[in-house]
Specification:
Length: 99
C-alpha cells in the first residue's frame, strides 16, 4: 500500500497567480491533475489573492485523472516529479506526456 509520501513531488510551480504558490513551490498537501484529452491541468489551482496551504510542505500528486499519460498507472502518477506551469491552461502539468 502506498502513501502520499510515495507519490511524486511537485518539484516546481511557476503559476504565480495560484493561492498555493509560494516562491515557485506548491504549498498544497496534494494536487489533482485533471483535464481532457491532450490536456493535463492542475485542478488544485485557486486564483485568489489569499495565500493558502501549509507553511512547510512538499506537495505531492494525490490523484491524476489523465489515464492517457505515460506516467499514469491506475490513476496514480508514476513520474519521478512533476512541474506545474502555463501550458494549454494557466496551470498545467508540464510533465504530462501522451501515451
Amino acid at each position: 500500500m502506498s502513501t502520499l509520501m510515495d507519490q511524486p513531488p511537485v518539484s516546481e510551480c511557476s503559476v504565480d497567480g495560484c493561492s498555493y504558490n509560494h516562491e515557485h513551490a506548491c504549498s498544497a498537501a496534494a494536487i489533482t491533475i485533471a483535464g481532457s484529452a491532450g490536456d493535463a491541468k492542475c485542478a488544485t489551482f485557486i486564483p485568489l489573492n489569499v495565500k493558502g496551504g501549509l507553511d512547510r510542505v512538499v506537495s505531492h500528486v494525490g490523484a491524476c485523472q489523465r489515464a492517457d499519460c505515460t506516467h499514469n498507472a491506475h490513476l496514480t502518477c508514476a513520474a519521478d516529479a512533476v512541474r506545474v506551469g502555463a501550458g494549454h491552461d494557466l496551470a498545467d502539468c508540464l510533465t504530462y506526456a501522451p501515451a
